[in-house]
Amino acid sequence: MMWQESVNVLVYKWLELPQGDKLSDALNFFIYDTVKILFLLIVIIFIVTLLRSYFSTEKVREYLSKKHEYTGNVLAALFGIITPFCSCSAIPLFLGFLQARIPIGVTFSFLISAPLNNEIAIAMLFGIFGWKVTALYIGFGLLVAIIGGIIIGRLGLEKDVLIEVKPIEGEIHAQDRKIVFKTRLIDAKEYTLDILRKIWLYVLVGVGVGAFIHGYVPTEFITSIAGADNPFAVPLATLLGVPMYSNAAGVMPLIEVLTSKGMLLGTALSFMMAITALSLPEAMILKRVMSLKLIAIFFGTVTLGIVGVGYLFNAIL
Amino acid sequence: MKIEILGTGCSKCKALEEATKQAVAQSGMFAQIEKVEEIQKIMEYGVMSTPGLVIDGKVVSTGKLLSVPEIVDLIKAS
User: Fold this and answer.
1) Which end of chain A is more exposed for a tag (fewer CB within 10 A), N or C?
2) What CATH code is carried by the domain that includes residue B12?
């Protein structure tokens, strides 16, 4: 809150802008939000990256290969939170898991959970909505990943994997590479700066548009589209989220403003999950190793799960 | 010496290839650099996070864009 007071002083005292005026309030909101979000992004991404350097997909694979279904689904979803994941290595990861004789359903639990719990989304969520909403997002995300994985595992879709996977003989062992702590720190710093360079503009644009809505768009308008008045707000938000992949940084500030103007939290959660979990570029990449049917089932299951979470949430709260 | 860069064509994989070329030039060693893009071959190395760096058939790094000095160290160590 100290930060809000500092921004108040800057905008209303030093710049001598009138308080209560739409433009100066929007400017106040913009400065307050961008600095707060960028600061939290740096801190959270740095910490998450540092923690993640202790986990590798290779080690997770070794561990999961010894687990059965169900337990495997739960663990795979949990590992999705802490393992570094990039959609560009979705294929080697997918095939690598199958190689280790990990069931296809367990593999999908990981594949759903990992992008859902990416560090940018988590950092933005925490920075904007606080730990409660972040925990709900992670919790319900895990639920979608676990149930989605179990359903896909049940459908017997092994033949829809287009590349023949040769199982690894015998026990699976991940190589352990010793990395000194200082290197981990440097790596985490580099990675954080790299991410920041990629997303800072999206954050600015997102908060800018948010500040505009904050100041100029009437609450009734938002409520009629995204609030309780519209029973189809949840599926609509989910569909809108799909093309916004990797723009969690730009969209989250918008969602903040929309929720403050009457968008229900369940609808907001669905929107956020659709942004991170359902990515068209990832689908295109996966097409090289999966049949269209398998991809459609994968996306269909996750979509239903996300819509379900949204409705459930709106009903409870 | 044979150095292989494993990657399915992501931007980090290309950057790693460039860095490796520079590192080889700096180290003064003679090395053959090869880009491996075929998914089956990448899987044979057991690598799941690209880009991967393989020196003389041994995986020395995965999922990371190494800096030129880091690659020089790896080349000298093997």
Assistant:
1) N
2) 3.40.30.10
Query: Tens-digit pLDDT profile for chain A (317 aa)?
Result: 678 888 888 888 888 778 777 788 888 888 888 898 899 899 999 998 898 888 888 888 888 999 988 999 999 999 998 887 777 778 888 998 998 899 999 999 999 999 898 888 888 888 888 898 899 999 999 999 999 999 999 998 888 988 888 787 766 666 666 778 888 898 899 889 988 998 899 999 998 988 888 878 888 888 888 888 888 999 988 988 887 766 788 888 888 888 888 889 899 999 989 988 888 888 888 888 899 999 999 999 999 999 999 999 888 87
- The domain total for chain B is 1
β-bridge pairing B58-62 and B2-6: unpaired
Residue A228's CB is within 10 A of a number of other CB atoms, namely 13
- B13 assigned to active site: yes
Q: Looking at the whole model, is its pTM more than 0.90?
A: no
- Contact yes or no for B47 and A93 at CB 8 A: no
CB-closest option in B12, B43, B64 to A96: B43
A315 C-beta neighbours (distance < 10 Å), count: 9
How many interchain CB pairs under 8 A, A with B? 57
Q: Do A88 and B12 touch (CB under 8 A)?
A: yes
